[in-house]
TrEMBL record:
Protein's recorded name: Sulfoxide reductase catalytic subunit YedY
Domain Oxidoreductase molybdopterin-binding: 32-176
Chain segments carrying region Disordered: 1-27
Pfam families: Oxidored_molyb
Signal peptide: none
Gene3D superfamilies, per database record: Oxidoreductase, molybdopterin-binding domain
Cross-referenced SUPFAM superfamilies: Oxidoreductase molybdopterin-binding domain
Amino acid sequence: MSPGFQGRPRSAEPALPPGQYLTEDFPVLSAGPTPKVPLETWEFVITTENGDERRWSWAELMALPQETAEVDLHCVTRWSKLHTSWQGISLDTLLDGLDTDAHFALAHSYGGYTTNLPLDDLRGGRAWVAHTYDGAPLHPEHGGPARLLVPHLYLWKSAKWVRGIKLRTMDQPGFWETAGYHDYGDPWREQRYQGD
């Protein structure tokens, strides 16, 4: 090595998935109107492939162990927002002890939106029902009162206004997946659309 050789300077930019750009904003993208969901009637239901149900009211959900997660968000429209702070209930807590042979999940939202995920992607400390963003109750435009948060996948998999998850033995595409978006949605593999 020649004296004084120091190589290329390292970039100050954070590592982003391919094709993404960094934003400080939190863009709002929705396929329809924002539903109004009163906390008095809100509920979250997990339904097994056999039709067995677990239900939580808002108060019951808030009484469960809470976790804080600092995660990066990646939207299929190519923006990424880093170091976002959320509070919610781990899907590990909600799924704990559930008798199921399912390998897939279909998340359902108030307003009719659905999205599909492998059940393993909701376990292992990788997914939450999130109700707080940046220290404040989650605003309805961002999915409040609660949204699914699955930050290792593109953001459309983190269903806004979540009301339940149906466990399935076979995969069933959700709203965006039937419109041509990728079934899995890994931002690091640029799985934006079917065939990617």
